[in-house]
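Bumping with the actual sequence this time:
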Amino acid sequence: MRAHIFVSGMVQGVGYRNFVMRKAAAMGVKGWIKNLEAGHVEAVLVGEKDNVVSLIEYCKRGPPFARVIDFELRWEDGDDAFESFSIV
C-alpha cells in the first residue's frame, strides 16, 4: 500500500519528521518525509495496509508539540522499492 500525505499546521521545528520516522521504523513502513518551503510536511508511506493506516493516524496527531491543522491523503499506485524510511 502506498500513501502520499501533506500535513500543515505547526509541523516544523517540533520534531514531527523524527516522530514519523521512528513510528515508521517500528511499524516496518518504508518511504520518506520532508519539510516544504511553505511550512508544510510531505511524506510517502509504503508498506502493509494495516501498518500504513496506523502510521497515518500517528501522522494526523503528530508529536506532543505539533498541531496538525490540515491533512491531505492520496492513495497511489506504486511499488517503490524503498529500503527504509528516511528524512529528505
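The C-alpha cells above came from a reply further down the thread. The mean pLDDT is 96.
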